[in-house]
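hi support,

uploading two proteins for the ticket. first:
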Amino acid sequence: MENKVIEKREEAIALYDKYGSLLTDTQKEVFSDYYLFDLSLSEIAENRGISRAAISDNLHKSLEKLSEYESKLHLIEKDEQLLSLIESVKNNEALDKNEALDIIKENL
């Protein structure tokens, strides 16, 4: 179960790294406080003078927005494909030249 929590956290941070600049300033600040600075919802709410529920809602909407960007743009998915291709080349795995070029073209 702890692994799933860590995976979700890493996924959220990866989404933020790729698309965070598209969030509002408030969304960026709350997201950073929670995911990067590891503050609790209560701590963030107290610092901002708003309810814990408002912070939770803000985080939920931010993650929803970030996930929506990825579902439309697939930038993280494309990065993973390119990294996989690079790893295959590094490990001298048999890779069809045309297949490699197709993957590269798709991701540019």
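and the second one:
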Amino acid sequence: MSYKLLTNLVRLIVYIIMIFIALLCIVPIYILFINATRSTPQINSGISFLPSTFLAFNWGVLGSSGSVNLFRSFGNSAIIAFSNTIITVYFAVLTAYAIEVYNFKLKKVVYSLVMLLVMIPGQVAVIGFYMQMSAFGWLNTFYPLIIPAIAVPTSVFFAKQYLESCLVKELIHAGRIDGCSELGIMHKIMMPIAIPGMFTMAIFAFVGSWNNFFTPFLIITDQKKATLPMAVQIIVNGNTYNREIGAFYLGLAISIVPVVVVYICLSKFIVGGMAMGAVKE
């Protein structure tokens, strides 16, 4: 067997495996959207790859529920997720910039602390977090779901690794010579350079915040302030949606639309951002 033939055979096998994995990821989501257009008897009859005509009916069931307002929960999750994403990305880059550019006492200690926090699961501190939010009077508000985004160790770690590979310190010195302030240098010089990495962090931050169920369930008690994952949980346990499975699938389909849209819009930055952050000169 020639080298060229062997190479083509290996490439074919790799393509087949990749297509199989892609189908494993795509088909369940496709069936989810298809079931959102079907009735309960149709769903119980088996899997279908063709849409049905019950989308308007399922939409009406969602809008008529008295136990949970899915659309209000959608808005709550949007407010929290977008605010969380903006705060996470900005302050992670700001912190990483300070660690990378400035020399100060305990610099290595600070970065070591960030790395240590990356390895500690957030659930370990959940009791202390709840008590602290209670002392602040922030229970049943959005503040505990947004304000802690100022300090996300994983985002700081990623931003630090990314800046190590793409930041040109000569540009910083040039900005200082031209009289630009330190924040001006960060905003006008560093951030444009770090845009691919920032978009990569934004995707992860948005998806994590949008899908977060544990923290809102711990903090929020008022159903009017419920996030979308909480609303989906109420849907699962609700008698109305147990009778109308199509409406349940429609609710799930609506819940994943923003994640898919954000990923499609920003996915081109993922490979470049992660590759740049993985290479050091």
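thanks. also noticed: The two ends are 40 Å apart (CA to CA).
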